Amino acid sequence: MIAPPCIVWFRDDLRLSDHPALHAASRTGAPVICLYVLDEESRAHARPLGGAARWWLAQSLRALQASLQPLGAALVLRRGAAAEVIAGIARETGTIAVYWNEIAQAPHRAVADQVAGALGEIGVVVERFPGDLLVAPPQIRNKENRGLRVFTPFWRRVQSLGDPAKPLPAPKKLNGAPPPASDALESWHLEPAKPDWAIGLRESWTPGEASARARLQQFLRGTVAGYSSDRDRPDRDGTSRLSPHLRFGEISPRQIWHASHFVAAEHPLLSADIEKFLSELGWREFCRHLLFDIPDLATRNLQPSFDAFPWKHDDKALRAWQRGRTGYPIVDAGMRELWHTGVMHNRVRMVVASFLVKHLLIDWREGERWFWDTLVDADAGSNPANWQWVAGSGADAAPYFRVFNPILQGEKFDPDGVYVRRWVPELTPLPDKLIHQPWTATPLELASAGIELGKTYPRPIVDHKAGRERALKAYATIRGS
């Protein structure tokens, strides 16, 4: 007689290692059904994925399917309202328990509660585990029982709690149950077809847990040296490139935490760089905690005074920004990198965001929506929190008078023009001294480089000095409030 199975509901945790729900289910000895539900129907379902993230999800699910097979299990794919789908499979298979890792976001918690309610009605046991953060949001509160709104004291509080639990090993074998019917991944149409705009994504990334772990090891054994300074240089390979792997849970924050501290203990000279790297992991955590308290982070100004900000509606300027045709090379390079690879260097993200919000006075929500659709690492916490930080409307926000000068930013962080030449190749022949401000070149210099401003490369769509002054005047209108 076959023992009744249990279900492990995979969510934003597409991995086998350090997967508390999978670990607990495997230890019961019961047959395990591994399930992923694409829920775009529940009343409280999470924000629909953007196009680039949908492409990543397809690859990540294929990688998870491949990693489960040697363990004796299959990944069942179903589409629909999670509560209805999971309760239906539980009835169909005689499931005795369903295991999952929690996601500390309001819509995910609401859907999980719906699932738990539906299972409770049919007598199925529910087992829920923390899984997506270093520290659960209720553990870090102020005297008013509210989450912290300033990063530095937040991160100190996280560190004061000591090391998170050690990562759990992946199961060596699963007692696979006869799987119920599964959707074909291709039927979900997560990947673009006509036109196929994902060519650059395929060239740039290999999603999946194995790639995430290899990337972490490569980073900690090499790139992390000099991270404190190199992380600001888009012309160098100075970052971890782990953000999309983290976004889909192909690697967990505590795996990164413990691996980083292990290397720091082995190589004390790397400690400062590793601490800086971990503070970036802390910023992700901070943004997720903000989202826990503020579910509408992507649509509501955290600072109410910004509700009266005089944003400009300018479709032409917005399109120029989206297409990397602003006339400012560092901005255009970043926007073209984003379109081709699904990511953008973090320093450049700040520059292009500042340009949209401050030089063009376009609402930060327009930029947030574009990033949500084009980033493979589009995160429901980090994306809006970072945009609000730049705009000045958010938590721990940048000072209103900080208007990044795209020329100086380019000259400082891409001094030899390597980054610009890679993504704006029409400017390649220009000498380094002109690469970040081609409009200052003489007619002879432009002609010798084969550049015709306004035709082969656009003139600046806004003057930097005038744009800065206009931004400061706009910010002055709300400073008093």
Textual characterization of the structure:
There is one protein chain. The protein has 481 residues and is an alpha/beta fold. Helices cover 46% and strands 6% of the residues. The protein has 20 helices and five strands. The model has no long low-confidence stretch (mean pLDDT 96).
List the topology elements.
Blueprint (H helix, E strand, L loop, with lengths): L5 E5 L9 H8 L4 E7 L12 H18 L6 E5 L2 H12 L3 E6 L3 H16 L3 E6 L20 H10 L38 H6 L4 H15 L3 H4 L12 H5 L5 H14 L4 H23 L21 H8 L6 H13 L4 H14 L4 H11 L7 H10 L14 H8 L4 H6 L19 H6 L15 H16 L2
Parallel strand pairs: 1-2, 1-4, 2-3, 4-5
Helix pairs in contact: 3-4, 5-11, 7-10, 10-11, 13-14, 14-16, 15-16
**What distance separates the N and C termini?**
71 Å
The dominant shape is globular
Contiguous uncertain segments of 5+ residues: none
Instruction: Going across the biggest sheet, name each strand in turn.
Output: 3-2-1-4-5
Write down how many β-strands occur, each being a DSSP E stretch of 2 or more residues. 5
What average pLDDT do the residues reach? Answer: 96
Proportion of residues in extended strands: 5-15%
Main sheet overview: 5 strands, parallel
DSSP helical segment count: 20
Find the structural class using helix and strand composition: alpha/beta
Helix/strand order, N-terminal first = EHEHEHEHEHHHHHHHHHHHHHHHH
Gyration radius, to the nearest Å?
24 Å
The percent of residues in helical segments reads 40-55%
